[in-house]
């Protein structure tokens, strides 16, 4: 029934790695945003896994720090997604593109 | 015996009124400027209700003088609302004078034992260790000074209303003049050396402002700067001197210092040297302000200012501040005979050098300027002899007759449409009889013709010097020679100006007598110049006249210094027969040289020109005040310029510019490297962010 925390950590690391790779390698803004989302959720998973580990170590007394942090992260991620998508829409309206390569205008 | 509370309160008003007047005049000046900007940008003539017909006449008269001296050209301007400055300034000074008179009468009525009337103290600076309280004090010395400053100041203010009529800066002039009187009164009436210094700097500032009053002509502005810088040298000495006094006495209160010298001498024998240096430094300050030998070159240049300024500041009041300072702290100077002899020597040499220079000047104001320097030298000679009250006596009579002569010269200049060269005057007694008469009275007093005020004061000084004996005999000889020269140049000036052929173009120039506003003060001053001698008759007059009034009056002030002197050097008094001989000698010398000069120059300028032709080198040498100005240029100004250029090149050009430019260069090159970070690729920003975050995380973990 119970998944060992080590597995959860491994899954989180895998998710984070996928997100990181996507963040660096992809050019589509929406995909990059999705990758950031993926990394945030990997972090959430780490929080929950750590919380579970502490609960087990304390003999079943629940440790709530991890879940609470996860909720904060979810809130922040939601805000980030809202702002990010708004930016993407604004970008598309101006440039008719969502490719990061086309918006390097600040570079000299 | 403390005076009652009521008379304490209004003492403040004596200096406060001129300050108030100054502020009001300044305000009026701004109003005038605004009005002028709005209605008439150029010269006057716009109709409005302040210009009286008399003013227009004077302005017009000043206008049509078509003289070739471009620098003295005045554009007559209707003063507009600024004309109100005149009554304001005069009224402020008049009330101040009346108050001062009342205070002095009060002081006189309190008798011998009350030395001073003091106003309420003002805690100016309170550092805990070293509090400075300043109050307004009238003692017998400041009583004399305050009457001279406000009285003669009042006359000169009245005169200036005529002289400055039509000047674009009419209201500004009176603002400065009133400010000057305020500063001078602070100088005289302050109870503390620091308050005195405030006034000392204040009069310096006003002197600068007024010398450069016609700054748009260029050279007056330069003369003002010269005066300011020369005075600054003296003021630095003054400051060092007052630091020494704080060190010695722990206070800056003038009466405490003056009263403490004798005790200091008795208790600490080592203090003698420190007292000497304190006195020397203060004397250095006095040399700057009173135009004595090393620092006198600014005073002749100060003649660039309007003539009432020359009369008020550069003859009657400000330049006497040094003498006042020495008399005020007389025990300090009396404590050291060497210092006294030094003062006397400087005074005698200054009197002599300036006297010789005045012999060959052509500018009427320059003659008077060098004469002023010379007479101030006499006063220092008196101080150096320990004859403090004689110095004040000569100060007072000099204030009368020199103010008279300057105002007379101003009247001549005014009547001649700003011609100052005596070689272009002559026979003016025909055109300006009142100016002529009063001028002759002033000349008689200056040259020391018997029974005029200058005769008594000068001979009192020479008698005192003679009485000291020893090295003072040399100084007495110099003084007597200078007296001869004084008589000579004074009557040369009178003869060249008022007698002889008319050496100006009568078709172009129409000399005229000055308005009553200017001649009335001349008449009052002439009366004072005649009667001023009555302030103190020589002791030999004892048998038929009440003697030495001023000397007795000042006795409480000069007593501490005189006492120290008598302890050290003994009492010197002349036998009556010697005194008669000296008086007679002084009178003969004055009469002889006055007569000689008068007859030689009555004929015209030939004798003058001959002097220059016979030995141009010597004449040039005298004309340029023994080349002292040129020596300063060579020895001080040029080296300083070279030094300044070097510092500009090395310190400023290399060090400071190098540092500043280097900083800019570093910022530029650093920035050009840093900007490569802005690559435009999100991935690289992310990498930087991640890397730095990781770094911070590592550091945090590391330091735990």
Largest sheet of chain A: none
- Quaternary arrangement of the chains shown? heterodimer
The Rg value of chain B, from CA coordinates, equals 30 Å
Task: Kindly provide the radius of gyration of chain A, computed on alpha-carbon positions and rounded to a whole number of angstroms.
Answer: 18 Å
Order of helices and strands of chain A: HHH
Number of strands of chain B: 4
Shape of chain B: globular
Low-confidence stretches of chain A: none
CATH fold name of chain A, please? Helix Hairpins
CATH class bucket of chain A: Mainly Alpha
Q: Helices and strands of chain B: which structural class?
A: mainly alpha
Helix content of chain A: over 70%
The structural class of chain A is mainly alpha
β-sheet strand percentage of chain A: under 5%
User: Beta-strand level of the residues of chain B, as a percent range?
Assistant: under 5%
Throw out a few tags for this protein:
heterodimer; A: 108 residues; mainly alpha; Helix Hairpins; 3 helices; B: 704 residues; two-stranded antiparallel sheet; globular
Structure write-up:
The complex is a heterodimer of chains A (108) and B (704). Chain A has 108 residues and is mainly α. Chain A has a single domain (5-96), classed as Helix Hairpins (Orthogonal Bundle), CATH 1.10.287.3510. Chain A is built from 3 helices and no strands. The N and C termini of chain A lie far apart (57 Å). The mean pLDDT of chain A is 89. With 704 residues, chain B is mainly α. In chain B, 71% of the residues lie in helices and 2% in strands. Residues 1-6 and 38-74 of chain B have low confidence and may be disordered. In chain B, strand 2 (122-126) and strand 3 form a beta hairpin. Chain B has a two-stranded antiparallel sheet with strand order 1-4. A two-stranded antiparallel ribbon of chain B has the order 2-3. Chain B has helices at residues 5-9, 13-39, 53-63, 85-109, 140-163, 170-189, 193-211, 219-249, 254-267, 271-289, 298-301, 307-316, 321-328, 330-334, 337-359, 364-385, 388-415, 433-447, 453-468, 472-498, 516-531, 549-569, 576-602, 606-614, 616-623, 628-674, 682-702; strands at residues 116-118, 122-126, 131-134, 137-139. The chains are: A mainly alpha (108), B mainly alpha (704). Chain A binds chain B through residues 23-25, 32, 100, 103-108, and chain B through 675, 678-683, 686-687.
